[in-house]
Write a structure and sequence with these properties.
3 helices, about 25% helix, alpha+beta, binds nickel (II) ion, Peptide Deformylase
Length: about 180
Amino acid sequence: MPIRKIITFPDPFLKDEADDVVNIDGRVVQAMDDMAQTMYAAPGVGLAAPQIGLNERIVVVDIGEEDENGERGKELIQIINPEIVEEEGEIVWEEGCLSVIDFRAEVTRANHIWVKGYDRDQKEVSLEAEGFLAVALQHEIDHLDGTLFLDHLSRLKRDMYTRRVKKALREGRPIARDEDDEDS
Ligand code: NI
């Protein structure tokens, strides 16, 4: 299973709305497994298909810790065409994103969600998530609508990060923390 390249902000592809998967075939299953592999290699707790350049509604999430062999995967969730059907409560969580290099910030989301979608066997699945898992699923499903966690922040914070990234790209150096950046 190949590890795919992760697209990063401000690539405009991340702003696109992804299409529903119409056919859950071998190609989709392969893409979903590549996504899991890419997420574990990063390492991260979630990945959405647009982050590897696929304009399709697929997310993978695993908030589990490594086991005694340093492996993850026991808590892997892979959903096709995920949809949040109900949400409740509020939680503030410091989020990061594999597509948003070197930046974390607090985001307010629903604390308890119910999600519907499809699995690799074309079976309809539903799941209920709370806390960190609910945060991770909302973050990934957001990606399918072209929304990054940056879009949930104040304009000031978002602009500060955008300036930092654009400056680094202009100067051809890696994106690093600014000393005057109070976030994260
Ligand atoms: Ni993300």
